[in-house]
Design goal:
Number of domains: 1
Number of helices: 7
CATH superfamily: EpsJ-like
CATH class: Mainly Alpha
CATH topology: Ribonucleotide Reductase Protein R1, domain 1
CATH architecture: Orthogonal Bundle
Shape: elongated
Oligomer: single chain
Helix content: 40-55%
């Protein structure tokens, strides 16, 4: 009978253990490579779905631009009963919002000077929608600090906005320009760092407040009762609510004079009411579903009188 010597048996046992260790290491490496490959594949698939969703969203955006153009061709008024104002569905779901039916924070600064009247209007709106006065003051300060400001003389201390020229007019000339302390606002999301401005409050604000690149009037045909009550001197919220109910029943305002007459407030002069009946600025929001993934996007559109709406900015999110 052949017998192995103890050293030979020990060597054989070590060889077996080494082989098992090598096999284990190879298995771990193979598993890690397979995991990385799986992650890479899934990332690639997710990116492909995102790109496909982005193309769908761009198609939906172009369709909305066409709706805005057609509405402008048919009627100078911008109203909530027009096709653009209806939520859209299909491959892309979403809606267009009239940003001039909201209070434009850009109006807080007119010709590089804080506008006292607009500041009062904004504070009034914040009271109506339940935003704490301290928080609303912080918002105003942040907005003002986002734009260049000029030194004023006593004659310049009361800027006003001319509704026939929404960019406003201020007498006098600037002696000195003070640069903005913060980047210019592009959307309400830029206010998220303000102390006390919680996400739920910011979400609520979005229904009544916009941030546009230029000063604007409020569209009386699309504005909420809260916004109208805030921007029309002496108009109570119940009066504004009654006015909106009458308007939405089909009695749309045909011009600013018609709006003022239906206020039934003889003390209010047409030139003091910063309310119009058309809109140039719209916010588009949409989402596309590709398999189990949703891709969302939003855009700011500017619609001049004589051409199709132009895309000011566009961003895609997960």
């Amino acid at each position: 009978m052949n017998r192995h010597s103890p050293p030979a048996a020990k060597q054989q046992g070590m060889a077996i253990i080494s082989a098992l260790l090598i096999a284990a290491v190879v298995a771990v490496m193979a598993g890690a490579m397979l995991t990385r490959q799986t992650v890479f594949t899934r990332s690639l698939e997710a990116e492909q779905l995102r790109v496909q969703g982005s193309w769908l969203l761009q198609g939906g955006l172009q369709a909305s631009r066409q709706l805005l153009w057609e509405a402008r061709q048919k009627d100078v008024l911008t109203r909530l009963d027009q096709p653009w104002a209806r939520p859209f569905g299909g491959a892309v779901e979403g809606q267009l919002d009239d940003e001039q039916g909201k209070f434009n924070l850009r109006n807080l600064v007119t010709q590089q000077i804080p506008d006292a009247t607009q500041l009062q209007n904004f504070q009034r709106l914040c009271e109506l929608i339940g935003i704490d006065s301290v928080v609303s003051q912080r918002i105003s300060q942040r907005v003002i600090a986002s734009y260049d400001q000029r030194t004023t003389t006593p004659a310049d201390s009361s800027p006003h906005t001319d509704v026939n020229n929404p960019r406003g007019t201020v007498p006098g000339a600037a002696a000195e320009i003070l640069p903005a302390k913060y980047p210019m606002l592009r959307s309400l999301d830029d206010l998220s760092g303000i102390k006390g401005l919680e996400p739920r409050v910011l979400t609520r604000m979005a229904k009544f407040v916009s941030v546009l690149p230029d000063t604007t009037w409020v569209n009386g045909n699309t504005a909420s009762a809260e916004v109208l009550s805030a921007v029309v001197p002496g108009l109570s919220l119940p009066q504004a609510q009654a006015l909106v109910i009458e308007r939405d029943s089909g009695r749309w305002f045909i011009n600013r004079g018609d709006f003022v007459n239906r206020l039934r407030m003889p003390q209010v002069a047409v030139d003091t009411v910063q309310v119009g009946i058309t809109s140039e600025w719209f916010r588009w929001q949409g989402q596309a579903r590709r398999e189990q993934r949703r891709v969302r996007a939003e855009a700011l559109l500017y619609r001049p009188e004589d051409r199709q709406a132009r895309i000011i900015w566009w961003r895609v999110g997960a």
